Amino acid sequence: MKKALIGAMVAAALAVGAAVVWTTGIEKAPTSTFVLLDGSKRTTDDLKGRVTLVNFWATSCVTCVGEMPKIAATHDKYKARGYDTLAVAMSYDPPSYVVNFAQTRKLPFQVAIDNTGAVAKAWGDVQLTPTTYIVNKRGEIVKRYVGEPDFAELHQLIEKLLAET
């Protein structure tokens, strides 16, 4: 019984790690307050007017750590054109680990810590990492990725959204 349960958990983890992509249609990004590493706050309303990637991640998540350089490169590629990135560390991630990760990797975007889990809950009860949302200039979620995105496809979507008025 125990082996079957472990096998099922491993199979589920592998299925999630296969970069499953769900489109959610157009829906308004949930009202949230993001507490950044420097103690300042941003809200969902602050995202409007820019195309924003909101990434839920954890320092203990191998896929999250692996995709972070690609997220940083994407940020650097598009930031001058009205693109932003917000990385939201999960509530179970020790804040000192998050701060250390952001500083040692010199992440070029803002990082928030979701201490209470309220932000993850508001964004569809995010429990699997990485989970990434693409928000258009109107503050609407246009895509959700569970697992590492296909970055070529992601860049095409970003280009398309940046071109919109």
Automatic annotation (TrEMBL):
The residues the entry assigns to the signal sequence are: none
Pinpoint the Thioredoxin domain residues. 23-163
- Do you know which InterPro entries this protein is assigned to? Redoxin (IPR013740), Thioredoxin-like_sf (IPR036249), Thioredoxin_domain (IPR013766), Thioredoxin_ResA/DsbE_sf (IPR050553)
Task: List the CDD domains hit by this protein, alphabetically.
Answer: TlpA_like_family
The family database entries (PROSITE patterns) matched by this protein are listed as:
THIOREDOXIN_2
- Give the source's domain of life in one word: Bacteria
The Gene Ontology terms for molecular function here are: oxidoreductase activity
SUPFAM superfamilies in the record: Thioredoxin-like
Q: What protein am I looking at?
A: TlpA family protein disulfide reductase
Taxonomic placement? Bacteria, Pseudomonadati, Pseudomonadota, Betaproteobacteria, Burkholderiales
